[in-house]
Amino acid sequence: MGGAEANFPRVLSPEQLEKYHREGCLAIPGFLTAVEADSLRTACRRVIDEMNPKDHQRTVFSTTDHEQSRNAYFLNSGDNVSFFFEQDALDEKGELKVEKHLSLNKIGHALHWLVPEFKRVSFSEKVKGVAKQLNFVSPAVVQSMYIFKQPGIGGEVTPHKDCTFLSTEPQSCVGFWFALEDVTLENGCLWYSPGSQNQPTQRRFIRNPDKTGPLTVFSHPPDPDDPSKYVSVPVPKGSLVLINGQVDHKSAKNTSPNSRHIYTFHVIERHNTKWDEKNWLQPTPRMPFTGLYENES
User: Fold this and answer.
1) Mean pLDDT in the chain?
2) SS3 label, residue 199
3) Residues 6 or more apart whose Cβ sits within 8 Å of residue 26
4) How far is residue 247's CA from residue 262's CA, in Å, rounded to a whole number?
5) pLDDT exceeds 50 at position 66
6) Residue 297: CB partners within 8 Å, gap ≥ 6?
7) Rounded Cα distance, 227 and 250, in Å
8) Whole-angstrom Cα distance, residue 85 to residue 57?
9) Quick one: pLDDT band at residue 4, thresholds 50, 70, 90?
């Protein structure tokens, strides 16, 4: 690792690093080329083309009612490519009301390893360079998602901290969030609360120790939230947004006629850090958490 490490590019300026550490979120326009962004959208279309909805449990992904937390399809999605639907895309019988390409909320959670185009971006030298500048010693990519924000039905994402779902001791999670088309106020851009990474949370999304109840539960109620503190992050296609795992962020429902496709993955530190064995996501023999620096782009 040492030889390659010295060659990692310095992607972030001192001013960008200072803003990230101060506010907990940073937009970096032009991180992906148009060709790179388009390659991920093309790969996603191929994955959906090959998907038969009848082969996948019709799991609705929603941050407002967390229905998906009650089934094994979600819990077992960490080492494969699983499909989660928009609530408004299904009728009362669970059948699709729209064409399958327009029905999905997200795909997860191992795109970064199982689909070549996503692997290429996730383990690129640019990404490694950013991780190095954020002082990661032994980072691992633990999950990835393609999120659609479908036109007119793309669901709201309620305020949350990513460390609620991907907890380490000490906390180390960072989200790498890539805009694959222009992200606007109208189609559901990110909003975050600057400095909220300095307000720790006890709230965790964990595997339920009570085997008679739902498979996953929240350990604590939502933290108090102040909507007035949020700022928006509209960004052009190709932008990377870095999100500290402890910063509060959210996005509104997409009521516009334009989609908002993004790709995101999360990195955690392994050096002198412990992954919470109660987290909903756990490594498996098929999909151990993959070291960022050890894997070639």
Assistant:
1) 91
2) coil
3) 12, 16, 19, 20, 241, 242
4) 19
5) no
6) 120, 123, 124, 125, 128
7) 10
8) 10
9) very low
Q: What is the mean pLDDT of residues 4-16?
A: 83
Pairing of strands 205-207, 216-218: antiparallel
Q: Under DSSP, is residue 189 helix (H, G, I), strand (E, B) or coil?
A: coil
Q: What is the pLDDT of residue 90?
A: 76
**What's the CA gap between 155 and 148, in Å, rounded?**
9
Question: Which residue stretches of the chain are H helix?
Answer: 2-5, 14-23, 34-49, 72-75, 111-114, 116-122, 125-133
- Does this model's pTM top 0.85? yes
Q: Are 284 and 78 in contact (CB under 8 A)?
A: yes
Residue 176, classed as helix, strand or coil, is: strand
SS3 275: strand
Residue whose token pair is 């380490």 = 168
| pLDDT > 60? residue 297 | no
Residue type (1 letter), 155: G
Amino acid 165 reads F
- Residue 10 CB neighbour total at 10 angstroms: 11
Strands 240-244 and 25-28 come out as antiparallel
Q: What is the mean pLDDT of residues 57-80?
A: 67
Q: What share of the chain has pLDDT > 90, as a percent?
A: 78
